[in-house]
Design a protein that fits this description.
Shape: globular
Number of helices: 8
Number of domains: 1
Radius of gyration: 19 Å
Strand content: under 5%
Number of strands: 0
CATH architecture: Up-down Bundle
Distance between the termini: 38 Å
CATH topology: Ferritin
Bound molecules: fe (ii) ion
Structural class: mainly alpha
Largest sheet: none
Length: about 260
């Protein structure tokens, strides 16, 4: 690893002293980081699949490049998370094989690719980015703090890529605007009501970079109300309104 975050993480891990922590809490933190590492590892495959989907639907090369870069980010996230889980557990941990059965099903269909992107990218990565930012601020263990700051920055860019792709898809296929708007309303209503995947971390894991269930739910509700719902509504307004918003937006963005 040669980037500055990796060097900073290496220093933090070299200075890590397990004796400073309650062994029971450290064991739980190691398990939680190992789970996070597996999820990051699976995200590499998600972006590999997304890159192929973008090629299949004729997306612009800039989006394809960003999807490949995002896959490299996810490799770095998985490496950092496995290194942290290894340090906490005192055992060398790494990824296993990944089941890719059916991974490309429906990937070449623009509507299906957009639907998956709204769920996993626009909503999922936006929430992940905001959670990682909060968790980076919460973490007092230096290795966790360093890794989460990098993850938060990257996830925010991944979310931007998802929104950019959905915007492009609606330009080439205006018939998608209405179903995308409907899907956002459904997904956000479900997420606000309490996502089934809500994590369940005891407050003492905050020092290792994990929000409690209560804190995660509160953050999600705030993110949905203040960020996601307004952004989704603006993006899926009827065409006339969208054209006006876009031209105004482009003037403002260059100030
Ligand atoms: Fe990630
Ligand atoms: Fe990501």
């Amino acid at each position: 690893m040669s980037d500055p975050t990796a060097a900073e993480l290496d220093r933090a891990l070299a200075a890590f002293d397990a004796a400073q922590f309650d062994p029971r809490v450290l064991r739980r933190a190691a398990e939680a980081w190992a789970t996070r590492a597996q999820n990051e590892h699976a995200s590499i495959a998600s972006f590999a699949r997304f890159s192929l989907g973008l090629l299949a639907v004729g997306a612009p090369p800039q989006l394809i490049a960003l999807a490949h870069r995002a896959a490299l980010d996810e490799i770095a996230h998985a490496q950092m998370a496995f290194a942290i889980a290894s340090a906490y557990s005192g055992t060398r941990l790494g990824p296993g094989s990944l089941d890719l059965a059916g991974a490309l099903d429906g990937n070449a269909d623009l509507g299906a690719l957009v639907e998956a992107t709204v769920l996993e990218g626009c909503v999922g990565e936006t929430l992940s980015a905001l959670e990682a930012r909060e968790e980076a601020g919460l973490a007092t263990e230096p290795a966790a703090r360093v890794a989460l700051a990098r993850i938060a920055d990257d996830e925010a860019r991944h979310a931007e890529l998802a929104w950019a792709f959905v915007r492009w898809a609606m330009e080439v296929e205006p018939g998608l605007v209405e179903p995308v708007g409907r899907q956002f309303r459904d997904v956000l209503a479900r997420a606000a009501a309490g996502p089934p995947e809500a994590r369940c971390f005891e407050p003492e894991l905050g020092a290792f970079g994990f929000l409690s269930r209560e804190a995660q739910s509160a953050l999600r509700r705030r993110a949905i109300g203040e960020v996601l719902a307004p952004a989704a509504e603006a993006m899926t307004k009827p065409t006339m309104d969208r054209a006006v918003t876009r031209s105004r937006g482009s003037v403002g963005a260059r100030e």
